[in-house]
Amino acid sequence: MDKKELEQLIESNGLGSVSKALLNLSRDSIRITTDNKNDENINIGRSKFGGRPDVPQGFLWPQNDAGQPLYFICQLNLNEVKPFDLSDLLPSSGILSFFYDALEQPWGYDPNDKNGFRILFFSQEPSQLIRIEEPTIFLEQGTFGSCELNYISEVCLPPWESPFIDNLNLDQEKSDNYFELQQQLTGQAVQDGLIHRIQGYPDNIQGDMYLECQLVTNGLYCGDGTGYNNPARNELEKGVYDWILLLQIDSEEEIGFMWGDVGRLYFWIREKDLKEKNFENPWVILQCG
User: Origin, by domain of life (predicted)?
Assistant: First the structure.
């Protein structure tokens, strides 16, 4: 969907009076489509889900707090992504690799979840990478299939539950209309396939993640009202806009991706860190119905 189509949809949902504000909030996103292939048929360095990772010599497999290896989830070849990166925030080349504890599946509402995932950036060209075997323990636990990734550009709007929409102070009627608009956008996105995306806005399943990222990465537990009711929230909340969605991965059963009960994984990063190619302090949230 482009901005013109989006504007027409906004108007048709009775939101003409806030159309300009909503269009100003719209963001460019990169929608991911998948092509299931055996790992042996995917070139080294190609963007893919699952399979075995392509890494530099001397790579050390990331582990969780218990010393168990994290599952390799995805690698993005940034040379392939760059033509679609209209935000110009991603590095122009290299590989981004994503790892996650697919057995324990941390939800991301606990500060102690921080070692249940990892994002690694390799500046090497694909010709300098090697495809390595997975840890042998995965033979007992099960491994993921693989699929090649392709990209298309897509414009998206903030989730109904987000600080961006809260700040518009919509009345009840317009709030309901925006909720319906989001339902339409999600329905259309689902018709186009699973909703994997890079950047833009998340397709929420449960609730706002911007505030959750900000609170939990500052040590507040968000699995109940504890963090949200903490007096520190008022000051911390100013930093919710620092966070941006880096990668959203839907459940893709054909390769074994199942996040909770047909949920999604959301990898988050502060915009400043992304610009500086600093992937030391991301966050991950799992949501499902």
Answer: Bacteria
59 found inside a domain: no
Taking each helix axis as running N to C, give the angle between helix 172-191 and helix 3-12, from 0 to 180 degrees, rounded to the nearest 10: 130
Radius of gyration of the chain (CA): 19
For 127, list phi and psi in degrees, rounded to 5.
-65, -15
Report the candidate in 253, 252, 222, 255 with the shortest Cα–Cα distance to residue 236. Answer: 222
Task: Inform me whether the pLDDT recorded for 34 exceeds 80.
Answer: yes
252-264, pLDDT tens digit by residue?
999 999 999 999 9
218: containing domain? 3-52+64-287
Pick from 249, 276, 241, 251: which is nearest to 265 by CA?
Answer: 249
Q: Is residue 9 part of a domain?
A: yes
What are the backbone dihedrals phi and psi of residue 190, each rounded to the nearest 5 degrees, phi first? Answer: -65, -35
Contacts of 15 (CB under 8 A, 6+ apart): 22, 174, 177, 178, 181
The pTM score is 0.96
On whether the CB atoms of residues 241 and 70 are closer than 8 A, the answer is no
